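User: tokens in, sequence out, please.
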């Protein structure tokens, strides 16, 4: 009897031990399964995980982990998308936590504040190092709303390795990350926008309006003055004095017309909706024709214009807008003549090719341009000091602006070098055009 009891207890213990072993093995399998990333498929999970006693627990645990994994992956993709989007924004953006440490910084901010050390978890002031930006951030915290300010930041230009001033619009606002109430995480976002080009454009616009008004007012005042003196029934308009007045008014009327024409030309060049004409023509023919038109002034000034091309038999064919190239050569040669009215001026026009580009050099041996004026000569209405130019004929101040914009519209460049009293040289570089003799198709090189 005792033997039977021992055998029964042994069998019961074996059964319980086996069940405990399977239960333990199932729990271990379930633990291993939920710790894997990504979750294994049903075929990969040990069958002990889905035994009768663990079936409900295993299903609930695996479903919960699967949902959590999907949520995590969804949030991760959303974060990656938002970060990619913020990195495409040209404004510098920082997201800070409550300790003013960086949680996120976009690509533009890294370019504005370069650093060899990691940005994340660093104090914002260590990166920015400008108390005015930090003051804007503190003010946003104080008022609990978005605030903005404009500052001028001095930084090193990585291209030139020289110090430059950057005008920044700074915006900052408090930020809540998760939830609401006292347990919510708080921080702030701050944006720095480079508005240097916008301010420069606005200043150019104001200067343009002011200068244009002045340039038009002067000849109009002269014309109106003469007309007022002539508007009298007793005035004999056949007198020599009034005949000279008519000639003077005609001259200033032509000046007004030229200013308006030049302003319209610049407007067309800067309007993307006004396409250039594309026709094949010879740059050399354009120069020859403009020299012919300017010959009366050339002869009056006892100047000399020479044209040289290398190689001699080159056609110098360009596909572009001949109207603008006529203006380019006319303005450059006329500018040299007007700035140097002393007899004996030599103007040289030199054509040559360089790396698949046409290069046209227009130089003179006149009084030159001071180094301080060289970077400014292509600005609208800018003219070299009159006492330096020794010119009796004032221009519109728009000629070189038209030249630069017309060349850029043809994907070219123009540069200027000058040694006062020795040489002034404008160098134009433009992609060369090759015309196939049989098909007449156009191939742009360079």
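Assistant: Sequence out:
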């Amino acid at each position: 009897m005792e033997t039977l009891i021992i055998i029964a207890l042994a069998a019961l213990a074996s059964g319980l031990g086996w069940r405990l072993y399977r239960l333990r093995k199932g729990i271990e399998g379930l633990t291993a399964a939920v710790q894997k990333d990504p979750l294994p498929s049903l075929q990969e999970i040990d069958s002990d995980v889905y035994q009768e006693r663990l079936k409900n627990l295993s299903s609930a645990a695996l479903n919960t982990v699967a949902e959590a994994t999907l949520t995590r992956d969804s949030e991760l993709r959303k974060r990656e998308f938002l970060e990619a989007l913020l990195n495409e924004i040209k404004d510098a953006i920082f997201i800070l936590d409550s300790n003013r440490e960086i949680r996120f910084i976009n690509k533009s901010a890294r370019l504005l504040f370069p650093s060899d050390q990691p940005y994340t978890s660093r104090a914002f002031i260590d990166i920015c190092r400008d108390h005015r930006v930090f003051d804007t951030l503190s003010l946003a915290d104080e008022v609990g709303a978005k605030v903005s300010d404009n500052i001028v930041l001095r930084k090193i230009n990585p291209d030139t390795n020289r110090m430059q001033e950057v005008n920044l619009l700074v915006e900052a606002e408090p930020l809540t990350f998760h939830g609401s109430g006292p347990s919510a995480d708080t921080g702030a976002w701050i944006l720095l926008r480079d508005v240097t080009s916008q301010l420069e454009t606005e200043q150019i616009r104001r200067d343009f309006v002011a200068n244009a008004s002045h340039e038009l007012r002067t000849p109009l005042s002269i014309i109106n003055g003469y007309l007022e003196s002539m508007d009298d029934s007793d005035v004999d308009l056949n007198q020599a004095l009034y005949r000279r007045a008519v000639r003077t008014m005609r001259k200033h009327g032509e000046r007004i017309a030229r200013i308006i024409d030049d302003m319209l030309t610049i407007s067309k060049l800067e309007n993307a909706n006004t396409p250039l004409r594309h026709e094949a023509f010879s740059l050399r023919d354009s120069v020859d024709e403009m020299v012919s038109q300017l010959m009366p002034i050339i002869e009056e000034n006892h100047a000399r214009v020479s044209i040289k091309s290398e190689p001699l038999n080159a056609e110098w064919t360009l596909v572009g807008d001949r109207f603008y190239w006529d203006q380019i050569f006319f303005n450059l040669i006329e500018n040299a003549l007007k700035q140097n009215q002393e007899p004996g001026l030599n103007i040289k026009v030199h054509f040559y090719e360089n790396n698949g580009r046409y290069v046209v050099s227009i130089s003179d041996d006149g009084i030159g341009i001071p180094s301080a004026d060289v970077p400014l000569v292509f600005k609208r209405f800018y003219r070299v000091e009159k006492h330096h130019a020794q010119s009796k004929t004032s221009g519109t101040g728009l000629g070189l602006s038209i030249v630069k914009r017309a060349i850029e519209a043809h994907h070219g460049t123009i540069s200027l070098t000058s040694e006062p009293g020795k040489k002034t040289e404008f160098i134009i570089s433009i992609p060369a055009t090759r015309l196939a003799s049989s098909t007449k198709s156009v191939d742009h090189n360079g």
